[in-house]
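Figure S7 source data.
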Amino acid sequence: MMKPAKLLSGFAGIAAGLLVAFLIFGMGGTSDTADADQQNKSNAEKVYVPPGEHDDYYMMASGGHSGQLFVYGLPSMRLIRQVPVFSPDPATGYGFEDESKEMLNGYKWGDFHHPAISETDAEYDGRALFATDVGNNRAAYVDLETFETTDMLEIPNIAGPHCAAFVTPDSEYFFLPTRFSVPIGDEFVGLDEYSEKYKGVMTAVEPDFENEQLEIAFQVMLPPWSYDLSDAGKGTSGGWGFLSTYNTEEAVTNLEINASENDRDYIVMFNWEEIAKEVEDGNFEEVNGVKMFDPVKNPGSVYLVPAPKSPHGVDMTPDGEHFIANGKLSPTTSMYSVEQALEAIENEDFQGEAQGLPILNYDSVIDKEVEVGLGPLHTQFDDKGNAYTTLFIDSQITKWNLDSGKVIDKVDVAYSPGHLAAVEGDTKNPGGKWLVSLNKIAKDQYLSVGPSHPESMDLIDISGEQMEVVGNAPSQPEPHYSQIISADKIETTEVAAKDEDRENAVWSQEEAHIERDGDEVHVYGVALRSRFVFDAESDKPDVVNVKEGDTVHFHITNIDRDEDITHGFGINGYNENFEIQPGHTKTLTVEADKSGSFPIYCTNFCSALHQEMTGYLLVEPE
Ligand code: K7E
Ligand code: CUA
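Tokens for the predicted K7E complex:
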């Protein structure tokens, strides 16, 4: 221990002393930089998932106008999979092969805003994810065992189900209220009759988990306003749903100005259990084959709660006792008491009515107004009684306490956050570990790729008192919302079960054959490493001979039943491609309207001899 002191004696000692002093006082920045480096290092450790290890959470992010679902791992923020839902996908052949082509029914795109994972007892259960399409009025069932879209519902009488999907605590229904109002029925109605004849419509969809399908249960006619976001009640508020509205001005043009006139719009509270009973009792009219419930003719189940100017998100607290409305043009967020609202309904404590629906007295229902900052859009929760609200205009997230209404912390994100998603954030038991800010604008965050930049997301550690941004990554367009589910709740199927009775399946090379019936040709083929067998009898078993004008149905079974051995099936020059997962059978129908020799090849690299996995479609001229 004496040695360093000795070295500091004499001239050398003075020089060294000066150096130390310089380091400490003269270059304050150095220690700041060192601190920042240390901070970056410890943040990197928090999100680092070593090669071969798995993330703790799945983040299911909507793909907006791409119509797809994007699956990320957290905390690494690695993009794991793109799941095609509302739009065709050439990589998997979704929308190319017969089954999904029929499901897409010619639609070229969808606009997927809010995913909803199925729930049991107000917790994500990992069975399915429900998706809704604002662009073309559809709902889809995504099976979370296979991460495949298994059913698609086209919904009549509606326009733009933006205010969706929110699932009831035991997945009895999920609801799709609309952003746009349109006339009910098939009659043409001009905009001069907007207030009387146009309606917002909310659809209750019932999932059938056994068959992985969806069915419309009923619809509810709502005033001609825009319905933006929604949440389901739980606990005290079980049986109720909550929607935010804007354009209660009923403007039909120049909404930017005309829909921002009223100081207050509404949160719509509706008792879905009650409505379901009413519908069961026959209190509905049939419109385009759907049971339509009118809450004005059948009062007692739908109420309005005044909300700050043009609210965007409405979110239920985990205990189901409060709902929070974010007024995007107001600096405050409003927190309402469910108990007080139910009491006001009981006492008919109304301050008026709008479009025939009673308006609850604001002062009787409000619990507190919280000054969160500018442009509040959406709110999520942790496991310690705190709320987190995105501030679009301030480019920040505010953390505030639900009990005290006090703002605890604010953090900058890059930039302009829309939604935010906390782990297990819409359940009665939020995880409290991570929060992801889903930002609308990335600006300078990444290497530039020209005029259009990606969207971005910030990963925020919310386990401590102060929030800490620990990661940032580009995201796919456009992450309106996502839900984050604990990885141990998802159980996937790796290889499809061998089903001897499956229609069109062939389970061995020897059984592969071709059947002809006039100009209809059915190829019952197999794919395996590393060949196609279409006709076992032929000396060229990988060649299909047809005539121009024939319709060819390729029924191909992937008989490789090993994890992740996917084969592709592309026809060169015929604009067709699809994938067949291990153990699956897929059918592709091709009109052979072009004569010539067309190579068939496996498009998904599957083995050392993948390049040899080929064949021919020979189309003889007429
Ligand atoms: Cu982008 Cu939920 Cu469609 Cu808010 S919505 S930001
Ligand atoms: Cu099969 Cu590549």
